């Protein structure tokens, strides 16, 4: 099954760190970490959208 996007090594590392952070956030439920992760996701989405234009 081919990947929808071609991930670069940097993206894979970012994804790994993000999944670790989300696992920690689900365990400890610190709201500030969740807010930071949400803002980070928004930044990634905006960056990808601007790169696609």
The tally of helices reads: 2
Q: What order do the SSEs take from the amino end to the carboxyl end, as H and E?
A: HH
How would you sum up the major sheet?
Answer: none
Q: Please, what is the oligomeric state?
A: single chain
Give the strand content: under 5%
Structural class: mainly alpha
* Secondary structure tally: strands: 0
Describe the global form. flat
Cα radius of gyration in angstroms: 13 Å
Distance between the termini: 27 Å
The number of distinct structural domains comes to 1
Low-confidence stretches: none
Helix content: over 70%
State mean pLDDT (0 to 100 scale): 71
Give an overview of the whole structure.
- It is a single chain.
- With 53 residues, the chain is mostly helical.
- Helix content is 79%, strand content 0%.
- It has one domain (9-52).
- The protein has helices spanning 9-28, 31-52.
- The radius of gyration is 13 Å and the shape is flat.
- The model has no long low-confidence stretch (mean pLDDT 71).
